[in-house]
Write a structure and sequence with these properties.
Length: 124
């Protein structure tokens, strides 16, 4: 059996606040928005890549303190830190450099989920 990651679902309190964070601040494109069974849903991500599915609802199944984080690759960690702090987003942890080829830090989304931004240096 072969499987491919399709999406990750986050149940959020305020879809517009989450769209502001993931789309307007982080720059993920909105693939589509729709309603299903009375819930507002947005799928975000680039073509051919796994999506983040945001579902607005109060009956959160996945809580931020469950240990799940979402990771994104950035070209420049320093630029990402500057961009986010200029937007009023606080750095929750980091920057951390576990080895010479990797640096990362964490911020929290509007629901408190950890979002990791990482820069890999490919040294030959």
């Amino acid at each position: 059996m072969k499987v491919n990651l399709n999406w990750i679902t986050l149940r959020v309190r305020d879809l517009e606040a989450s769209l502001n964070f993931y789309h307007s601040i982080l720059g993920l494109p909105i693939d589509r928005r729709f309603e299903s069974r009375g819930r507002q849903i947005a799928m975000l991500g680039t073509e051919g890549q796994p999506k983040i599915e945001l579902i607005q609802g109060s009956d959160q199944i996945l809580k931020p303190e469950c240990g799940v984080s979402i990771g994104f690759e950035v070209e420049s960690l320093d630029e990402a830190i500057e961009t986010l702090t200029n937007q009023g987003i606080l750095i929750a942890r980091g920057p951390i450099t576990p080895n010479p080829r990797l640096r990362y830090f964490y911020v929290l989304d509007p629901d408190g989920f950890e979002v990791q931004l990482a820069e890999h240096s490919y040294i030959s």
